[in-house]
Amino acid sequence: MLMIGWVLRQVVAAAEREYYDPANIQHALAELETQLDQGVIDEKEFERQEDVLLDRLEEARQWANGTL
Among 44, 41, 25, 22, which Cα is nearest to 33's? Predict the structure, then answer.
């Protein structure tokens, strides 16, 4: 039972590191801009997704500072 808890904590920690990695978020923003440039998404969808990613970037800063 203790091993399962440890494994779960490790999985959650790895997922948080990946989710809050600023490089991953910046990459997603660049991909989003490419989609806009290529006409895959419109301006409204770009802005919606950009807002989500910018919020996530702010959360990542807070997470890194231990204030989240």
Answer: 41
pLDDT digits (tens, 9 = 90+) for 5-57: 899 999 999 999 999 999 999 999 999 999 999 999 999 999 999 999 999 99
**Two structure tokens written together for 57:** 């970037």
Contact call for residues 63 and 15 (beta carbons, < 8 A): no
Closest by CA to 55, choosing from 19, 17, 30, is: 19
Mark 37-60 as b/e (b = at least 16 C-beta within 10 Å): eeeebeeeebeebeeebeebbeeb
* Burial bucket for residue 10 (CB in 10 Å: 0-12, 13-18, 19+): exposed
d(CA 68, CA 52): 17
